[in-house]
Structure of Dihydrolipoyl dehydrogenase:
Amino acid sequence: MKYDVTVIGSGPGGYIAAVRCAQLGMKTAIIEKYNTLGGTCLNVGCIPSKALLDSSEHYHNATHTFKDHGIELSDLKVDFKQMIERKTQVVNQVTGGVDFLMKKNKIDVFHGLGSFIDKNNIKVTDGDGKETKIETDKTIIATGSKPASLPFIEIDKKRIITSTEALVLKEIPKHMIVIGGGVIGMELGSVYARLGAQVSVVEFMDDIIPSMDKTMGKELKKALKKLGFQFYLGHKVVEVKGTAKTVTIKAENKKGEIVDIKGDYCLVSIGRKPYTEGLGLENAGVKMDDRGRIEVDEHLKTSTDNIYAIGDVVKGAMLAHKAEEEGVFVAEVINGEKPHINYNLIPGVVYTWPEVAAVGQTEEQLKESGRAYKSGSFPYRALGRARASMDIDGLVKVLADKETDEILGVHMIGARTADMIAEAVVAMEFRASAEDIARMSHAHPTYTEAFKEACLAATDNRALNV
Ligand code: FAD
């Protein structure tokens, strides 16, 4: 079999790249080692985590806020098996959707491990050991990432688990210890805290979601504390031991004291590492960097001329929409076009409640770069919309250039900011000033008014509703 392009890996990077290649008239194949398409994101990442976040949020609201809304319920309980079952159905729907897209675009799907024989030939080995050879002109590597761990932690997948197992638990933990205060830990910790678990977070840094603007971590910590989270910040995990039913963690604080934390589950969520196992990169002359990522140039081309790489397996944010943008980009590069990605404008979202969303530079980054900036914030509690829904935790912070007023960064925490951040991305893509947004009509009452008000605050401190 001979193809113009072969994509290895069917996550959001890989399947989107395959669709765009097919749209551009290339004969395209995609190889996926798992039985279902969609990669981490659709099978064990973005989608199942959001399904459980939604279900647990309904339960939390039913137990905590319905009464205030004048809705009384009795005998409320969680059917956890059904909750997991619904999540599985959602996953089946979306992965089935990718099957449909492959058929619609006449992309040949090969299930099995893709491995380079040389730069133009790939071997696909399926679960029964059967081998199929594919000849290809160009290849796009989109093999994604896997959960990272620490050398002394043995992930037994029963009590000491990664996000993958946390999405298929058979019971609600009594006490879940989360190692790592990043996005995945805060999201999955929220799921179980809402369902009644005690959640303890052990984080080496002094803040949670440390890569985001510091204000966001501070505000999110307050909100999660209300949900019952306990934080051990500035604590370095030095030992993790599991038995059949318990897990014990030892963590060292800044004073050198050792704290013991006992739970029944330990979620290790310290980040993800690029996945290249079994790819046979050496047979194709594809180089990796010192962090195990595939090295690419500004066209996402690897060290071998006709081989490209995208998504989590290359440098940059490990996000589904970043992988998708790169998928389209690379297909168009192969087609001889000159596409563009503005990496500064890839938004980041944490789907806790309140949600956190951001785009552009953080205040810390601006300070470090020495750029003169001004800042404007607007609190959710001053919004009519937030009052109506009782979602008053949160704020929007806008950072703009001191002289030109161009928006340089937008950081939001509050209800529905995951969707609201798109307005900031558009504004920044068109290099809008804070004044531009401040003068645009935003429907009332909506949460989006907080962005407009924060822009008013950033330009001569003229927010109207505080
Ligand atoms: P992946 O989605 O990892 O797909 C790679 C695919 O390649 C896999 O299916 C793998 O089986 C296959 N593969 C690997 N090697 C081979 C081989 N040799 N042959 C054949 N197939 C192979 N991102 C967001 O933007 N928003 C979110 O809300 C979000 N939530 C997340 C929640 C969790 C719990 C996790 C774990 C991740 C989340 N992410 C989220 C991150 C997101 O899932 C990844 O950034 C995204 O999936 C990366 O896409 P990718 O195409 O690079 O790789």
